[in-house]
Structure formats: C-alpha cells, structure tokens
Specification:
Layout: H1 3-11, H2 18-26, H3 34-47, E1 51-55, H4 61-67, E2 74-79, H5 82-94, E3 101-105, E4 120-125, H6 132-139, E5 143-152, H7 168-186, E6 190-194, E7 200-204
Parallel strand pairs: 1-2, 1-4, 2-3, 4-5
Antiparallel strand pairs: 5-7, 6-7
The structure holds S-adenosylmethionine.
InterPro entries: Cation-dep_OMT, SAM-dependent_MTases_sf, SAM_O-MeTrfase
Keywords: Methyltransferase, S-adenosyl-L-methionine, Transferase
GO molecular function, one term: O-methyltransferase activity
Length: 212
Amino acid sequence: MEIFEYIESMNSRPELFPDVLAYAREHKVPIMDPDALQVMKHHMHLTGAERILEIGTAIGYSALHMLSVSDDVEVVTIEKDADSHRTAKAFFGTYEVAGRVDPILRDAKEIDPEMLRGPFDMLLIDASKGNNEYFFENFSPFVKDGGLIIVDNILLRGLVVEEEIQSRNRRRMKEKVDAFNKKIAASGMLSSFLPVGDGLLIISKQEEGKNA
Ligand SMILES: C[S@@+](CC[C@H](N)C(=O)[O-])C[C@H]1O[C@@H](n2cnc3c(N)ncnc32)[C@H](O)[C@@H]1O
C-alpha cells in the first residue's frame, strides 16, 4: 500500500451527502476533494467559525459540509451559474438547511461585499482560479481579525510547477494562481500551503501590523 493510500484510508469516513456527490460525478461538477474538505472542517471546529462566506457554490456540496459542522453554522454562498445555483438550492431544501444558508445568484466580481451582512469568521474562495487575488483583496476585509481565509486548488493539479505550457489560457491561469500564491507567501501573514486534495491554502487573518 502506498503511503498516500494509507493516509486516505485512515481519513476516509461515510459520505454525508451521497446523492450530492453522485450528482457531481454524473454531471462532472468540480467539487472540493474529501481530504481538503476534512481539513477545512477541522479548522472550523478548532476556531469555532460560524459565519461563513463562500465564493463558488456550484451545487452546494462544500456548503452542505460546512453547515454539517454545527447547527450554529450559517453560510452565505455566491454562484454565477443559474443551473448550479438552482440545483444547490434544491439540495439545501432536501437536507433542511435552507434556513441557515443564503445562496446568491450573482457574479462575485459584481457584488458589493458591503451588502453581504458581514463580518464573517471564514471566507472560502473556490471559484474561477484566475480571480483568487481579486476575491482575496475584495472579500477578506470582511473577515474578522482572527478569522480564516481558505483557498482551494492552489496547485491546479500540478500546473503551478509546469514550465512548458502550450495552451495560452492554461499558461495564463498558472501565472495568475502562482502570482497569488507567491504574494501570500511573501506577505508575512500566517499561512499554510497544504498538499491535500488539489492544494489547500489556509490563511489566518491577523490584526494589521501583526506578522506570523
Ligand atoms: C470549483 S466549483 C465550486 C465547488 C464548491 N465550492 C464545492 O466544493 O462544492 C467553482 C464554482 O464557481 C463558480 N464561479 C466561477 N467564477 C465565479 C464568479 N466570478 N462568481 C461566482 N461564481 C463563480 C463556477 O460557476 C463554479 O460553479
């Protein structure tokens, strides 16, 4: 058994939302990897995060997992694709969490964050990867000091370390994600780049002037 298979088997647990997972697989909806989800939920436990802002709902899989951490968790989640938003709302109804989740159908780049009823304990950035920096700059001011900012897919399935990329779009995407990662790494903020799933970045928002 490979070491990563061993870790995976130790981490594996019954799926809480099998029909949502099955839908994602059938319709090829990209969702967070189980180990990245697990690490994120663990951090929610450790920090007591209850008010969450998510950029990138898709069909609501990660939001459902965040809502499952405690009955006190509330999620505001933004999605620009109408079909995904509708499907997410249906799943929120199925799992009877509609009262704790505010699904917003909008392009997050067109939203005034002041309108979102912050501040938030945690921000999850999981939308168009080339916009990580934009989302970070615009939405992290609405995370409380001591709160968390989590960014998924910071490795782009290995693309971030590829030298020769033929496709212009992929090269551009790599450059943007890499530039954002490097900016965070150089910022002095308390951050961890974790090799779980497709790479998970966890940043602790600290008071201005305090470094890691
Ligand atoms: C990786 S999926 C999100 C997966 C979800 N967080 C999960 O794990 O279940 C990314 C989603 O972000 C949405 N998206 C991309 N750019 C966006 C934007 N500018 N504003 C809102 N949603 C966006 C896409 O339509 C897609 O549904």
